[in-house]
Amino acid sequence: MKKFLTASIIMAMACTFSACGDKTSENVSFSESSVTSSENSVETSRITQSDTSQNTEPAITEQTTESEMNTESVQTITSTSASVVSEVSITTSSENYGDIDASEGIVFDNPIAEQSDEELIAAALALFQSACKTEWDYTVGSPYELDMNQTVQNQFGWDCYLVISEGVNSLADVRADYHKIFSENYTDTLDEVFTETNGHVYCLNGSRGADIFYKKSVITSVNSRSESEISFTVTNYFSGDDFGNEAYTMDEDFVISIDSDGVWRVSRFRLPY
Shortest CA distance to 127 belongs to which of 234, 24, 227? Predict the structure, then answer.
């Protein structure tokens, strides 16, 4: 069942993403045992716009709903009436940002010109979070079940392990899954991680450390919009290090575009950690 979200709901949602990659923070864990991939198919979310004349300024609230509390994901949503700013604290990667499911892209029911900046930023946050999870799962670990006893070497001479998840037998299958969140126009590097041979696909399943000083990402502005592309600025926050360097920020472009199936997906992105 597709979800319909009004503008008032979206504006009460978070404009700060306490990102899915702070490996040393108490809020986020990316250990191999804690990161899981959803095997359930989820329909694309739709973002609608309500009559804003009916909106009232949100009261100061702080809540953690029991339905969001589980071993996979814990979200704490807080709002302030002054700035309508929220924070989300995530113990493991989640494909959902608040009530917006962006695991297979987002569809806007109304023209982009009629969407408020708050609505666009809320949608972008959900897509950004899904992009972080997807990129990490596919290029660092593996979103699939592997047989670690069956290997082949890829073009770089590295051992890759047999993917035994049902329905994944080729690079085309892998790309179809990956591009549920990344645009058809997004250039991927999956052939560096996955290799196909004899009707099977194998995964490098490599591991690397993340930037331990990375803290969070905030979408700070909508830079441009059209009926085919929306550009945002993402500010990534990093703490100081053990050598006395001070905390700093780094701005990146984050762009979403509409694919031929009418779904908005990520077309420019860099994993911030």
Answer: 234
pLDDT in tens, 10-46: 333 433 444 444 333 333 222 233 333 333 333 444 5
CA angle, corner 43, sides to 47 and 272, nearest 5? 70
Asked whether the whole model's pTM tops 0.70, one would answer no
Q: Looking at residue 190, what DSSP letter applies?
A: G
Q: Quick check: 19 and 27 in contact, CB under 8 A?
A: no
Q: CA-based Rg of the chain, rounded to a whole angstrom?
A: 19
Q: Report the alpha-carbon distance of residue 47 to residue 26 in Å, rounded.
A: 32
Can you tell me whether residue 136 is helix, strand or coil?
A: helix
- In angstroms, the CA 271 to CA 19 distance is 10
Number of helices and strands in the chain (H, E): 3, 15
Distance CA 38, CA 26 (A): 23
Neighbours of 139 (CB within 10 A): 19
Residue 222's identity, in one-letter code, is V
Class of residue 173 by CB neighbours under 10 A (exposed 0-12, middle 13-18, buried 19+): middle
